Amino acid sequence: MKELCPYLRRTEATLKASLLKMLLRFIRSLIRIPGFLLMSLVYVLILIFLRLIWGKDLNRMHGVLLHFIRNVYRLMGIRVEVQGELPDEPSIYMGNHRSYVDAVLVPAKHPVVFVARSESKSWPIIGWGATLLGTIWVNRKDPSSRKNTREEVKSRLRDGLGIVIFPEGTTHTGPDLLEYRPGMFYISAEGGFPITPIALEYKDPDIAWVGQSKFIPHAWKHFSKRHIDIKVSIGKTLKGSDGGELLKEAHNWTAKEVLKLRKEWDSQSSQ
Fold it and tell me: How many domains does the chain have?
């Protein structure tokens, strides 16, 4: 009986620690998810107000986006480690796609707009804000939409804005990459626009939002953690007149870089 007492005390302590951990995770999600939606709504209202004053001045709107992103990091426990140097000139930022979190991870020295699927445009709050920030919506089922997208991208770049796009076209668990969609690479080659490849890798690969996973349950699970850690690596800016070669160079660099970042996370976890 005496031998059982220390075991029972240890079991009780372990159970209490587990229950406390579960409670803290529940509280974090309870604060963060509604807090994020409320904060997003406030920023959308601010953007609407500023739109009335400034019109479609996306350069000014960019400051609001950066302020929003900083507050998202604080609220949601997001920690980003950036490797490499950002280009001094506006560029098309091409990154691998893991999760809905990716959109707030791409750093830039210049105002940027995003290219996204038209299905996301109807999302309450998030879709409204993205539209106000000049997001270029693509309907991949409509050939005329793709043509309009190319013209909008060219217009934004000529206006000195950067473009953020995830050329895999959908999220993927990794650490490998899906094939890149070629359209933007040929647009870049035709217009002489620079491409900056970017590699993203999360410490927890399970954060990838793939398959039939619903947004709220997925977000509730992952934002219950104290921190979400991500490594972002910025590659050398590419230019060229051959869209196929640009695609190959960007894809090869990113594929190697995400594997390197994955190894870094795995080695840190094993220490």
Answer: 1
Residue 202 in contact with residue 99, Cβ under 8 Å?
yes
Q: Taking a C-beta distance cutoff of 8 angstroms, is the pair 184, 242 a contact?
A: no
Question: Which residues constitute the domain of residue 130?
Answer: 4-270
d(CA 27, CA 72): 17
Query: What whole-number distance in Å separates Cα of residue 117 and Cα of residue 135?
Result: 10
Give pLDDT tens digits along the chain (271 positions): 555 566 556 676 677 677 778 888 888 888 999 999 999 999 999 999 988 888 878 777 888 888 888 898 999 999 999 999 888 888 899 999 888 888 777 767 778 888 887 777 888 888 888 888 888 888 777 777 667 877 888 888 888 888 888 998 888 887 889 999 888 898 888 888 899 999 999 998 888 877 667 777 888 888 888 899 999 999 999 999 999 999 999 999 999 999 999 999 988 876 5
Specify the CATH number for the domain of residue 256.
3.40.1130
Q: 141: which 2 tokens?
A: 């089922």
d(CA 167, CA 100) in angstroms, rounded, equals: 14
